[in-house]
């Protein structure tokens, strides 16, 4: 029997996914097990949101390839899906705006679902649907049975948590809003100092109750950087990425010394924007 007090959660992972690896997929499983195990949350969906080309990260291949690989990787997942909104934006979007976009989308969908749910009528009594809908809307805010929209939480690795300390990579107000209004699920390897990092940050410490540190006891050191390095050297990446992703990479010859030089010498979009704003 479901606990009515459980908060439904949607896990959102933002990043390059250049390429997506088995470790990216494991983050979702680890976070889901942890949150469901608390008895306070129930994970209902996972979303992978590849960053757009305007991010300008060195070695970042075109977004459409990264989206397709993510879709291939999640093809057999019953709960993790790929969202293209962020990848299609002409300008780089801050993580806070991506979180806000998905939360608003969930709330709009939930509202539509509530409004379109038919109300049972008493026998012999007829009312127009428009009147029914008006009554429903008026009472919705007072009705304790109205189901709240799921809450979006940012899923990340310890490296993203530690990137908060990199000057001008994040706006301090964005970090505060992310942890206060949404929350973090940070998957960290055993022995990692994520808790120490939270302790040393006033903002993170203030909102520590909304930061969930998940220990990854089965060590997995796969990273996109290491995958690209292996590909440049003609080494096998089988069992490090899903088979369909490996096939796609090989068929399109995606990673090479040339691709690794993409955006070389270009300032990363958040650094460029935040540095400029700090000067004004």
From TrEMBL:
Its cofactor is Mg(2+); Zn(2+). One of its GO terms (molecular function) is identical protein binding. GO terms for biological process: ATP generation from poly-ADP-D-ribose; NAD+ biosynthetic process via the salvage pathway; negative regulation of adipose tissue development; negative regulation of DNA-templated transcription; nicotinamide metabolic process; positive regulation of adipose tissue development; positive regulation of DNA-templated transcription; response to wounding. It comes from Callithrix jacchus (White-tufted-ear marmoset). It holds the Pfam family CTP_transf_like. Belongs to the eukaryotic NMN adenylyltransferase family. This is Nicotinamide-nucleotide adenylyltransferase. SUPFAM superfamilies: Nucleotidylyl transferase. It catalyses: nicotinate beta-D-ribonucleotide + ATP + H(+) = deamido-NAD(+) + diphosphate; beta-nicotinamide D-ribonucleotide + ATP + H(+) = diphosphate + NAD(+). GO terms for cellular component: chromatin; nuclear body. It comes from the Eukaryota. It is found in: Nucleus. The keyword Nucleus applies. Residues 107-146 are annotated as: Disordered. Residues 12-229 form the Cytidyltransferase-like domain. It is an enzyme of class 2 (transferase). Its EC number is 2.7.7.1, 2.7.7.18. Keywords: ATP-binding, Magnesium, NAD, Nucleotide-binding, Nucleotidyltransferase, Nucleus, Phosphoprotein, Pyridine nucleotide biosynthesis, Transferase, Zinc. Homohexamer. Interacts with ADPRT/PARP1. Pathway: Cofactor biosynthesis; NAD(+) biosynthesis; deamido-NAD(+) from nicotinate D-ribonucleotide: step 1/1; Cofactor biosynthesis; NAD(+) biosynthesis; NAD(+) from nicotinamide D-ribonucleotide: step 1/1. Residues 129-146 have a biased composition (Basic and acidic residues). Signal peptide: none annotated.
């Amino acid at each position: 029997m479901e606990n009515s007090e459980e908060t439904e959660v949607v896990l959102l992972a933002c990043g390059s996914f250049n390429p997506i690896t088995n470790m990216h997929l494991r983050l979702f499983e680890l976070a889901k097990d942890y949150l469901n195990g608390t008895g306070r949350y129930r994970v209902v969906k996972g979303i992978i949101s590849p960053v757009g080309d305007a991010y300008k990260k060195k070695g970042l291949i075109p977004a459409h390839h990264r989206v397709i690989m993510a879709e291939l990787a999640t093809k057999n997942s019953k709960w993790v899906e790929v969202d293209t909104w962020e990848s299609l934006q002409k300008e780089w979007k801050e993580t806070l705006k991506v979180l806000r976009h998905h939360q608003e989308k969930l709330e709009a969908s939930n509202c539509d679902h509530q409004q379109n749910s038919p109300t049972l009528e008493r026998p012999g009594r007829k009312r127009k649907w428009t009147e029914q809908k008006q009554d429903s809307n008026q009472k919705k805010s007072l009705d304790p049975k109205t189901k709240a929209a799921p809450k979006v939480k940012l899923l990340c690795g310890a490296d993203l948590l530690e990137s908060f300390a990199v000057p001008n990579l994040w706006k301090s107000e964005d970090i505060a809003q992310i942890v206060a209004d949404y929350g973090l699920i940070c998957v960290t390897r055993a022995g990692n100092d994520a808790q120490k990092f939270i302790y040393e940050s006033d903002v993170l410490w203030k909102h520590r109750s909304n930061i969930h540190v998940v220990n990854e006891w089965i060590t997995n050191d796969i990273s996109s950087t290491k995958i690209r390095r292996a590909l440049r050297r003609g080494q096998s990446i089988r069992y490090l990425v899903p088979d369909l992703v490996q096939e796609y990479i090989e068929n399109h010859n995606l990673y090479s010394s040339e691709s690794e030089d993409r955006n070389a010498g270009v300032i990363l979009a958040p650094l460029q924007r935040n540095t400029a704003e700090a000067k004004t």
